[in-house]
Amino acid sequence: MAILKEKHTKSQATSLPPSPIPTYLLPNSSSNLSFIDMASTRKSFIFIFTALINRTHESFLFSYSFSSINALILLFRLLAVVISQAFTGTYGVNYGRIADNIPQPESVVTLMKASKIMNTRIFDADHEVLKAFKGSGIEIMIGLGNEFLTDISINEDRAMNWVKENVEPFVPGTRIVGIAVGNEILGGGNQELWEVLLPAVKNVHNALVRLNLADKVKVSSPHSAAVFQISYPPSAGEFKESVLPYMKPLLDFFSQIKSPFYINTYPFLAYISDPEHIDLNYALFKKNPGVYDQKTKLHYDNMFEAQIDASYAALEKAGFEKMEVIVSETGWASHGDANEAAATLTNARTYNMNLRKRLLKKKGTPYRPKMVVKAYVFAMFNENLKPGPTSERNFGLFKADGSVSYSIGFTGLVASSATSVFSLKLMYAISAALVLIVSL
Q: What is the rounded CA–CA span in Å between residue 235 and residue 326?
């Protein structure tokens, strides 16, 4: 089967509320090596080694008689593990590629690592992208496009061939952790796809099982707000009656295989749909009166958490109160048309900076305080070939040349920043290795 072509659009929100790291465990000083204490370096190495065993649950055979070369190899392997786990597990970025002017995948990997983005999602299974991510430690969710669902749903062999072509050859070097089967199917305009979604999901999962990959690669299917009949107040959240006959069997299967519920949540779309009745500060995580849910007696000071809890309420009503909710898309456009006045650079920076701070706290929501919120931000780049309103082409955290669209703490892909940061960390790793060798 040919490599999938990316296809992705967003849906408008359907119900609106009223107004109301760990850092790298490497030296962080540029001091001369002569000032590094050898004993403390060895102790630091032992600490890192022990901590990594505890965190990764891997077993290493350690001997005091190993050679200096083996020590160097081991150290670099350990440092690679540290780098791959520098991301907290709550923040990811959608890597859309509907553009003809964005950096090559290899440069994107460098950019993500420099910015400590260790989770990403693509909307297809492009082989060049998957090759570029090999050895990066970045976890990636790939997509099986809507246009392939019917074929995959009626033929188990087609599903097997797809997995053999687009997943099996790349793991474990490329850390493929999920397959999004379709995007925003239920509640969408093509009801024929509603019928084939679950069979397609099952066939892909069964192929993973047969290839012994199901424990590493989870199957899912992200939804838009179109699946909800109502989402305000959060406790009133429920699925549309027309969607339920398809949603409940899908959720039942996801519950069996322990896959989460993925929702595309856009306070931006909600706000521009009804700016007269929605407080902009509420949508942007800024100080505001907030919203009080009379049923649960819970207070919400931002729309993002309210939308997530509306998903939890809908799942609970459908009988899946233990299912985790993960945000597969959220973001704010930095430029838009005349009727998208909120699409400004200032608002985009405010939303994405506050969202990032919120996610890095590793907290739950008011309704599910123990379920840590996780989200993939949309999107990595401004995509100049996307159809639709101007905002669709301006959700990027980074511009086409790899520089930042606005500052929220990331490093752009330019010689004076990303390259130097990467080189500096490499220098630190080599320095630490040399000190270790000398001290053995």
A: 18
pLDDT value at position 86?
30
3-state helix, strand, coil in the chain (%, to 5): 40, 10, 45
User: How many of the other CB atoms lie within 10 Å of CB of 171?
Assistant: 16
Are 181 and 220 in contact by the 8 Å Cβ rule? The answer is yes
Active-site residues: which are they? Answer: 184, 329
Question: How are beta strands 238-239 and 228-230 bridged, if at all?
Answer: antiparallel
Q: Which residue, among 127, 135, 155, 102, has the nearest Cα to 4 in the 3D structure?
A: 127
Model confidence pLDDT, tens digit, residues 125-169: 999 999 999 999 999 999 999 999 999 999 999 999 999 999 999
Nearest to 332 by CA among 378, 300, 301: 378
Which residue is associated with the tokens 């752009």?
Answer: 412
pTM comes to: 0.77
Residue 318 has pLDDT above 90, yes or no: yes
Distance of alpha carbon 41 from alpha carbon 47, whole angstroms = 10
Q: State the residue for tokens 């593990």.
A: 81
d(Cα 123, Cα 133) in Å, to the nearest integer? Answer: 15
Six-digit token string for 418: 């990303």
First to last CA, the chain: 53
User: Which is nearest to 179 in space by CA: 207, 155, 147?
Assistant: 207
| Range picked from 3-7, 62-66, 292-296, 420-424 for highest mean pLDDT | 292-296
State the Cα–Cα distance between residues 41 and 38, nearest whole angstrom: 5
* Cα of 38 vs its chain's centroid, Å: 40
Mean pLDDT in residue range 226-251? 97
